Amino acid sequence: MKENYEKILQSARELRWDIGGDFHEKIMEALYTDASRIADRAVTYPDEKPRFDLDRTIDRLVTSRIWGFPLMILMLTLVFWLTISGANAPSRLLYSLLIDTVHPLLKTAAASIGLPWWLDGVLIDGAYLATAWVVSVMLPPMAIFFPLFTLLEDFGYLPRVAFNLDHIFRKAGAHGKQALSMTMGFGCNAAGVISTRIIDSPRERLIAIITNNFSLCNGRWPTQILIASIFIGSMMPAYLGGVISAITVVGIALLGVLLTFLVSWALSRTILKGEVSTFNLELPPYRPPRILQTLYTSMIDRTLIVLWRAVVFALPAGVAIWLSSNVLVGGVSIAEHLINFLNPFGLLLGLNGVILVAYIVAIPANEIVIPTILMLTVLMSGVTGAGDGAGVIFELESGLETLDILTAGGWTLLTGVNLMLFSLIHNPCSTTIYTIYKETGSLKWTAIATFLPVVMGIVVTFFTAQIWRLVAGW
Amino acid sequence: MDKENKKTARGDVGSLQAQAGCATCPIHHAANLKKLGVDMENWDYVVALAGNPNTGKSTVFNALTGLRQHTGNWPGKTVTRAEGGFEFGGSRYKLVDLPGTYSLLATSLDEEIARDFILFGQPDVTIVVVDASRLERNLNLVLQVLEITNRLVICLNLMDEAERHNMNVDPRRLARDLGVPVVPTVARYNEGLEDLLAAVNEVATGRTKAKPYQVNYNHPKLERAVSQLVDQIKDAFPQVPNARWVALRLLDGDERIIRAVEEGELGELTNTRDDLEGIGASHVSQKSGFAQ
User: Fold this and answer.
1) Between the N and C ends of chain A, which has fewer C-beta atoms within 10 Å?
2) CB of A51 within 8 A of CB of A147?
3) In the 8-state DSSP scheme, what is residue B78?
4) Chain centroid to CA A438: how far?
């Protein structure tokens, strides 16, 4: 049997010489010719008069050299502005329900059945509060952002974005389709990494995977939005606050896009050298989105699934935070030891020990960075009367109150700016890291994708801090 | 769409059954299609959904299974296989949504997934979803699928868009030329899906036999080489259903197919439809290393 197989391959090799080198092209040509002939016979145009073509008119606008980019940025700003301003009220409502109302109820119930203080702490002040915070802060913006984004997607706008970005990616030595995986990354980096499967060449696919982390993901939007509104929005007159915050967030997102280009460019000239492959990007026809169906599927498929993931990670993180700030070693809590240890390094980067600890705690899910920071800051600076005291994750209702706490913790505008930068440029979350490993099957590339951004983040924040201090004298 | 187009067009393939009366009646629809979601136990037939990117494969998939795979208006959205089930005409079907591809030459991972499933998964029926408003480009893929399998149904989707672009696409003509059933649909609005299922059912049960169109390569040397190889392949793998295509791929130096010959994997392919369960499915997921 085996010889038979070998014989087939042998004669295939010989015959290949016989039929000549243009054989592949001939096959393709024949396919195209036949396809076109059959299509021609089946299609007729009953009405030959040219009609006004709406699709083409829209295309000419959104992919034009002059208007393409401004329109894209405008559209993004609009989406974020709607998200930021629309999410405020429902967020507050959920907060007052889950944290102001249910939390005390749970505490009372726990006390009445005589739960030991540590169990009550772990379960209610740790696990429950972490989860409640994540739900109240994440659910509203996601419930607005995802449907809006999905509507744009269904309408057919994303391929136009890819079309606009294509030549920049090409100049950076990357694949034009990376524009699509990058856009997916704005929702979730793990999803973005999976979507790089549309890129054929392994070299370009690796570039897309490694740089996907520079797309601000859903877990990081809340951090950006909160810090932008309390440090930058609050410096503006009230009526400008929301818009300026939105613009700041878009600015950070665009910085991420810029970094994507720069890093792609650097990678394709160093460890991932190679030719740029060409591809055909089809601009699909605009289709009127089916709004109700889109709302439904984006609620179920995206919002709830992402939220569920956040909750799954927030639960144990809440427990860990509570424990680390309540278990004492030598009279000082574990969290405090860690913070003191990391503080000098943090200050060098224009951050502080609390923020670094928060980023370690938040490796599983970026969503819990801010609550961890607030809780630890209160613990360290001994602000009293805010939240529920040490070891309890809480969120303050007004941005100004948060600002007070952070200022008491030694925060300046620089800390805020550098936190936003570090939130953009640091290691991917553990789900994304695992996805990268599954997709590349290589520890080496996973390690590069993980550590490259951390190192970059450290460098960027370090230089920002040094220059800032030189100029501003802080 | 004119009335004639709405009916299933089969050309001279198989007999046009007297179903026009029933198929338009809503009671008939409700009774016939049962969406089974992810419940795919004990299927009778496996159906693959192939097609160019962005032609509505996932929409068809959702409409038939009742699942809610996210659909997006951009090419390359489905990069993994999705599976679901439905029941129609008393048979249980497993439906596999393949990544959208322009060709089956397997130059990229998604093309390889799609091709491996059609070839090694040996679905009982392959539905190729075709964008009616971009027929010519879509037919490239159809012709390539036809070389691998003749158990094919064409879902001529997005008929509304073709109409919007002022085109009149004739499904009967197409069915006659391609030699396989062609069913016009607007999957977004569930139009024509009942007819599609009827056609799938006919092919699955073997009541419709295709007379597939064969691409004419106009290359005497090539034809000679192919027929020589076909003889050898049929000798070694008497059961293989698509020897001509295998020969072409070998001549083209397709590594994947060379490996399949080398390792005798091609021998797993068969003309008969018994005892096929799972072979292809497990093969594909192993091959490409995908977890669901």
Assistant:
1) N
2) no
3) -
4) 19
Q: Which residues on chain B are in Cβ contact (under 8 Å) with A175?
A: none
**Residue A392, pLDDT above cutoff 60:** no
Q: Do A1 and B236 touch (CB under 8 A)?
A: yes
ipTM score assigned to the predicted complex: 0.77
Look at B250 and A2 and tell me if their CB atoms are within 8 Å: no
Question: What is the reported pTM?
Answer: 0.59
Can you tell me the mean pLDDT for A170-184? 82
In tens, the pLDDT along A112-130 reads 988 888 888 888 888 887 7
Beta bridge partners of B47: B95, B125
B80: number of CA atoms within 13 Å, CB side?
Answer: 14
Burial (0-12, 13-18, 19+ Cβ within 10 Å), B22: middle
Question: Are A30 and B177 inside 8 Å of each other by CB?
Answer: no
The three-class DSSP label of residue B129 is strand
Say yes or no for a CB contact (<8 Å) between A19 and B252: no
The answer for B48, left when phi > 0, alpha when psi is -120 to 50, beta otherwise, is beta
Q: Which of B67, B74, B159 to mutate to test the interface with A (most CBs of A within 10 A)?
A: B74
pLDDT in tens, B116-158: 888 888 899 999 999 998 898 899 999 999 999 989 999 999 9
Q: Give the model's confidence band at B69: pLDDT under 50 very low, under 70 low, under 90 confident, else very high.
A: low
Which pLDDT band, with edges at 50, 70 and 90, does A255 fall under? very high
Distance CA B179, CA A134 (A): 57
- Give me the helices (H) in A221-368, please: 221-227, 238-269, 291-297, 305-326, 334-348, 353-361
Closest in B68, B173, B253 to A41, CB measured? B173
At residue B33's C-alpha, the angle toward residues B32 and B38, to 5°, is 150
- Sheet containing B33-37, strands listed edge to edge, beginning at the edge strand earlier in sequence: B33-37, B82-88, B91-97, B45-51, B125-131, B152-157, B182-184
Q: What are residue A73's phi and psi, to 5 degrees?
A: -65, -40
Distance CA B231, CA A140 (A): 66
Q: Which of A35, A46, A289 sits opposite B139 (nearest CB)?
A: A35
Q: Which residues of A touch B140 (CB under 8 A)?
A: 31-32, 35
Please give the full DSSP string across B140-161, using - where no structure is assigned: HHHHHHHHH-S-EEEEEE-HHH
Each residue of B190-217: pLDDT tens digit? 889 999 999 999 999 888 888 888 888 8
* Distance from C-alpha of A122 to C-alpha of A129, rounded to nearest angstrom: 10
Q: What confidence score (pLDDT) does residue B117 get?
A: 87
Whole-number percent of chain A with pLDDT over 90: 15
Are the C-beta atoms of residues A343 and A352 closer than 8 Å to each other?
Answer: yes
Nearest CA to CA, how far is A149 from chain B (Å)?
11
Tell me the mean pLDDT in the region A33-40: 88
Residues paired with B156 in a beta bridge: B130, B184
Structure tokens at A234: 């609050």
Residues β-bridged to residue B127: B49, B153
pLDDT in tens, A319-363: 887 888 788 888 788 888 888 899 899 989 989 888 998 888 888
If you average pLDDT over residues A148-154, what whole number do you get?
Answer: 77
Dist CA A217 CA A191 (whole Å): 10
Instruction: Using DSSP, state whether A144 is helix, strand or coil.
Output: helix
CA closest to A29 among chain B residues: B217
Domains plus CATH for chain B? 3-204 (3.40.50.300), 220-288 (no CATH)
Do residue A200 and residue B213 have CB atoms under 8 angstroms apart? no
Cβ of B23: how many Cβ atoms within 10 Å?
18
Q: What is the mean pLDDT of residues A190-219?
A: 85
Element (H, E) at B48: strand B45-51
* Distances in whole angstroms, Cα of residue B86 to Cα of each of B36, B66, B83, B91: 5, 8, 10, 9
